[in-house]
Design goal:
The chain is an alpha/beta fold and 181 residues long. The protein has one domain (2-180): Nucleotidyltransferase, domain 5. It has six helices and seven strands, in the order E-E-E-E-E-H-E-H-E-H-H-H-H. It has helices at residues 46-56, 74-93, 103-109, 117-127, 141-155, 168-180, and strands at residues 2-7, 13-18, 26-32, 35-36, 43-44, 60-64, 98-101. Helix 1 (46-56) packs parallel to helix 2 and helix 4 (117-127) crosses helix 5 (141-155). The two termini are 27 Å apart.
Length: 181
């Protein structure tokens, strides 16, 4: 089962996590949200998102709930909202079921305290050992958060798919092992 996780916004991230036959979760690929234009004209490249989805074929997508940031100006808030809407529309038009997830829900599942972006990247590096190249830079925290959102989605999937085993026990074991290190 492949799940798409999205940390939304122009500077957000996309990640696909796969769970197969009770094995440990695998980060298939993660990338920054593709954009076109620059400055005030920068916007999400919806065609590139569609191509990413077509390449990986996830069965489900989770997007972190968008919310205004404190002291964010009207122009910045509008740009952020427009980016989130474009991402949601791109995924929906690929016929992928979309679920909006609260930041507190996936962070609680991954045992991430507070708002520390670097902590999320470190947790993703612990959980996805083969993904160090994709998450090597400190600025890859959006990719890491999208991977953790996808991991949360894979663990909470209650759909009846023959090829999608219940990943809860493997994910919990992986999280516990990561926490003990």
């Amino acid at each position: 089962m492949r799940v798409l996780g999205v940390d939304p916004g122009v500077s957000g991230g996309l990640a696909v996590v796969e769970i197969t036959d009770g094995a440990a979760p695998v980060l298939v690929e993660c990338t920054d949200i593709p954009v076109i234009g620059s400055g005030a004209k920068e916007r999400v490249d919806v065609a590139a998102i569609r191509n990413f989805i077509d390449q990986h074929r996830p069965i489900r997508a989770l997007i972190e709930r968008a919310q205004a940031m404190p002291k964010q100006g009207a122009s910045s808030g509008f740009k952020y909202g427009r980016a989130v809407g474009a991402i949601e529309a791109s995924i929906a038009l690929c016929s992928i079921p979309v679920e909006i997830v609260e930041p507190s829900a996936w962070k609680r599942f991954c045992k991430l305290p507070g708002k520390d972006k670097e902590g999320g990247r470190q947790k993703a590096l612990q959980l996805f050992l083969a993904a160090h190249g994709m998450l090597a830079r400190r600025r890859d925290h959006n990719r890491a958060e999208s991977a953790l959102i996808a991991l949360y989605g894979a663990s909470t999937c209650t759909w009846a798919y023959d090829e999608a085993p219940d990943p809860t026990s493997t994910l919990e074991a992986t999280l516990i092992a990561g926490a003990q290190q």
